[in-house]
Amino acid sequence: MSLTEEELNQPFNFAELMRFKLQKNEHKGPWTQYGLDCLREGLLEEVAELLDAIDNDEHSVDVALEAADVANFAMMVADVYERERKKMKKRHEAVE
After folding, report:
1. Which pTM does this prediction carry?
2. What contacts 24+ positions apart, CB below 8 Å, involve 5-12?
3. How far is CA 56 from the centre of its chain?
4. 55: number of CA atoms within 13 Å, CB side?
5. Contact (Cβ atoms closer than 8 angstroms) between residue 81 and residue 37
6. What is the 3-state secondary structure (H, E, C) of the chain?
7. pLDDT tens track for 21-71
8. What is the pLDDT of residues 6-22, one digit of tens each?
9. From its phi and psi, is residue 59 left (phi > 0), alpha (psi between -120 and 50) or beta?
């Protein structure tokens, strides 16, 4: 899946860029299969890639796509964190 030239020349719809990047990586499976530590590491790697793209004065589309990766990983971290907290709460309540 790739963006068309016309899509590249349109103002960024950030949510669409996020969706595009998620679809591009569907082969990796659902993010809920990964632990919080793995996702945190992925987030840090994506931030580094974003900063590299900025520092290397890459095309604004490339910077936006890297930013979409950062946003996606941040969303995944928040989702898995919430899921893990709910599991811990249920375990704690079961012990009481």
Report:
1. 0.81
2. 8/61, 12/64
3. 21
4. 6
5. no
6. CCCCHHHHCCCCCHHHHHHHHHHHCHHHCCHHHCCHHHHHHHHHHHHHHHHHHHHCCCCHHHHHHHHHHHHHHHHHHHHHHHHHHHHHHHHHHHHC
7. 999 999 999 999 999 999 999 999 999 999 999 999 998 889 999 999 999
8. 666 666 688 889 999 99
9. beta
From the list 3, 2, 76, 85, the residue with the least C-alpha distance to 46 is 76
| CA-based nearest residue to 16, from 56, 85, 68, 57 | 68
Hey, where are the domains in the chain? 5-95
* Token pair 């907290």: residue: 85
Tokens of 18: 């996020």
> What confidence category does residue 88 fall into, taking pLDDT thresholds of 50, 70 and 90?
confident
Output the six-digit token pair for 51.
Answer: 């900063």
